[in-house]
Design a protein that fits this description.
It is built from 11 helices and 8 strands. It has 257 residues and is α+β, with helices and mostly antiparallel strands. Strands 3-2-1-8-4 form a 5-stranded antiparallel beta sheet.
């Protein structure tokens, strides 16, 4: 079963010294008062979906924000669905202690888990520096590749060495390669890492392999995994910051499934 993210945004009011909840209506953003927040509480005794419950979900939907289902984003901000073995991740922090009781009730009304929160500066700092390659990218030990490249050029002097061609037609090359499911660096990239970064890479779980002694042969179909969630998260933040300039923003986050 898939996992999705659910986000509430708040801005800090320097006058009242309170975090104000934001809702979106007709693509416009606005802060809400305590009376408006009260509608977030699930009607008592509503076990079946009826008109009243449908009205409730319609009202609360104005408060929720989301992004594409992006397990790289989920892993980075809360170590949720970290199937790639990312190392630089945040652990769930729970919800802040200063929330309005109705906001707490809203998070309790769904089957949510891994509650956490992030400030705007933390969202802006999210990046894809540590991001896995697409699955089935091929890697090869450097000396094997160099020997093959020399042999290939001798046999096909007028042909450009292309990965797609040799993957499809050269058994020797395929046998020298393996499918990569984790992280993969060129020799140059590996040498550029600090010792601290290298040690972190060496500590990566065995399932993801130790790829730092290999190089990868790039082709047009090979690139870092990016499902767009990080950019979407930042775009939501920018929209809020543009609407409420100069105010600090906080994201309240939970996941389902």
């Amino acid at each position: 079963m898939g996992c999705d993210i659910h986000i509430l945004f708040q801005v800090f009011d320097p006058v009242t010294k309170k975090w104000l909840l934001i809702k979106q209506s007709n693509n416009e953003l606005m802060t809400v008062n305590d009376k408006d927040i009260a509608i977030l509480v699930l009607p008592v005794g509503k076990d079946n979906y009826d008109d009243e419950l449908e009205e409730y979900y319609g009202k609360t939907s104005d408060f929720w924000f989301s992004t594409t289902r992006d397990y790289i984003l989920f892993a980075k901000i809360a170590n949720v669905r970290n199937e790639y073995g990312l190392l630089d991740v945040l652990e769930p922090r729970g919800l802040p202690k200063d929330l309005h009781i109705s906001v707490e009730k809203l998070f309790e009304s769904g089957d949510y888990h891994s509650h956490t929160w992030l400030l705007d500066t933390e969202i802006e700092a999210l990046n894809l520096d540590e991001s896995p390659m697409y699955k089935h990218t091929y890697y090869i030990q450097l000396h094997v590749y160099e020997n093959f490249k020399k042999e290939y050029k001798e046999n096909y002097p007028n042909n450009e060495l292309k990965v797609q061609y040799i993957n499809q037609h050269t058994y020797a090359f395929e046998k020298a390669c393996s499918a990569v499911y984790g992280f993969i660096y060129t020799v140059e990239e590996w040498e550029s890492f600090s010792e601290e970064r290298k040690n972190k890479e060496r500590s990566r779980p065995p399932a993801y392999g130790k790829k730092y002694n290999n190089v990868y042969i790039e082709s047009s179909g090979q690139e870092k995994r990016d499902y767009g969630g990080i950019d979407e998260f930042k775009n939501l933040l920018n929209k809020i910051k543009n609407t409420f300039p100069g105010q600090q923003v906080r994201a309240l986050i939970a996941f389902d499934s």
